[in-house]
Prior knowledge:
Blueprint: H1 2-14, H2 16-53, E1 55-60, H3 79-91, E2 95-101, H4 103-113, E3 131-136, H5 143-149, E4 155-160, H6 162-204, H7 206-214, H8 219-260, H9 269-296
Antiparallel strand pairs: 1-3, 1-4, 2-3
Amino acid sequence: MRHALSETWSGLKRNVGITLAVIMTMWVSLSLFGAGLIAAQQVDLLKDQWYDKIEITVYLCTAKLQTAGTCDPGQDATQEQKDQIRSAIEANPQVQQVWYETKPEAYEQFQQVFAGSSIKDSLSVDEMQDSFRVKLVDPKKYDALVEQVKVMRGVQKVQDLHQILDPVFKWLGALQWGTIVLSVLLLLAAAFQISTTIRMATFTRGREIGIMRLVGASNFYIMGPFLLESLIAALIGAVLASGTLVFGVWFVIMRNAQHTLEAFRWVGWPQTWLSVGSIFVVAIVLSIIPTVISARRYLRV
């Protein structure tokens, strides 16, 4: 052990510039990797939160507002049409609950939402729309109900939050995967740097390694200093990356975002520690594999 520690210290001092480069690359790449994991968990939390609250709203025809749908010109949806629409909705096995909202109720809600705004007086009760609000058993299975209801007589428009949320989550998913891909590329660069460092170290000590092999030194005895050298550099990078990630989550999310957007579910310490653990696992693997591959060829006499 004393030999391994002594040789490791000598190697670190001898290759201090390259070692620092490895540490910096590992720091940046592992930070991005951890950020990608945090982003992935955040997107999953938001999906679970918002998809669970998604409701489909079926707007019925009104004589004052007919721009689309299956409306009869100049007429509100008839009571018979309303009954048929409700029956079709309630008969669908994916429907959990149905609420009917009348024009006066819609107008009252409109007044509350736009209280103090000039928009408040822009519509009258007659210009509002009756509607059915539908809660689904599985919010992700909404297509069948939408396709069924939107062609029924008396329906002007069917709206669901998937139309708004799906593009948002699509771009969030692209962002998180872009972060992970970029971090993987940087991690590969760090692995190549570690491999180059070990090759240089073994090349400069080639004669010494040959002598140790001739006197019967084991592979682990010879490779130990190189493994420790790369492992130390990787772990320093992992510690710096973990510190960066923890500070980022605390400052950006816990101290600011959680207080600004309280309606959202945000990642917390459990997700952060999971990402930190993943950072250390990746750092250890990336330090060992390139070292073993690079040093193996010099362990033969």
